[in-house]
Amino acid sequence: MNKKILLSILIFASIFIAGCGNKKVTQSVPVNIKSQADIKTQAQQSTNTTNTTNNTIDTTKGSTANEVNATNSSIKNNSKNLSHMSYQLTKCVYKFKNVTIYYPQITGLSGSNNLNTINTLIKNDAFSCISGSIDNNLSLQINYNVTLSNSNLLSVKYTGQYYVNGTNHPTHLFYTTNIDIKNGTKLKLSDLVTVNKSLADNFKEGTYIPWMTLANSQDNKQFQSTVINFVNSINDNDLIASLNRSGSKSSGGSLPSIYSPTYCYLTRNTLGISISTSSVMGDHIEYEIKYNAIPNNINSKNEVWKSILGY
Fold first, then answer.
1. How many separate domains does the chain show?
2. 126 by DSSP, 3-state: which?
3. What is the pLDDT of residues 240-289, one digit of tens each?
4. Domain containing 22: what range?
5. Can you give the pTM of this predicted structure?
6. Helices 217-233 & 197-204, crossing angle to 10 degrees?
7. CB-based contacts of 110: which residues, under 8 Å, 6+ apart?
């Protein structure tokens, strides 16, 4: 990235921060895709577009749910305080036209009747970036990473990008799934922690997790500094409102859609939170907060914490 491009990023960021209170984002997309900022299609592609056909998504078509690789290790209970459950994770893939989505599925779940329910929840979330149909002009690539798996919890983050022919650049996607294995339910941020100013402050003070690196080290350093300054400038009330909607794919209230959706994931030692941002800053930003920084926010009544914190 040359100096002119970096300067444009810095100028854009300062303008964006000053005007974020009423910013609206629109994009012309010829298919019904839920983008990282839940962009609503305001205009359809011109009717003179040729060779475009729509196909309703059908996961029985193409290479659907094909086993690619099975993980070598099973997830076993290591605590006497937890129910006796173990399972394996299998990597599956859906391929149709220019769309490829990788997602995990659970096999061999012992001590529970929730296998089918959990796999359906995982699969539905994996496909949540698609709604309705797949367009020939669409290119979509999604992969995943299991950030934490134990007998009580499965936390998965999805990353990737979609691109529509004729648009200026691809949109980078980030979303997550957190599953309560014991109960066969999805977990959102507010199920795991109390969302308040303390959590918002700890988010800003957390560790920025860059997901892309610029070729020039100085440009990369300045870019990361711009992102961090942007996060620190977010109004506390706006950030709290965004965190309260974590796991939701629609914005609400006065908060502009650029801050929504937000997502969370868990690791062995940290709570990860992702917020949406402008395309010039990569479409999404992730921070991680150490659990020992938010003891008063952790919802200890939720049993999934037993398998993480060991109490």
1. 1
2. helix
3. 999 998 876 543 333 334 334 799 999 999 999 999 888 877 889 999 99
4. 3-309
5. 0.73
6. 170
7. 84, 85, 86, 87
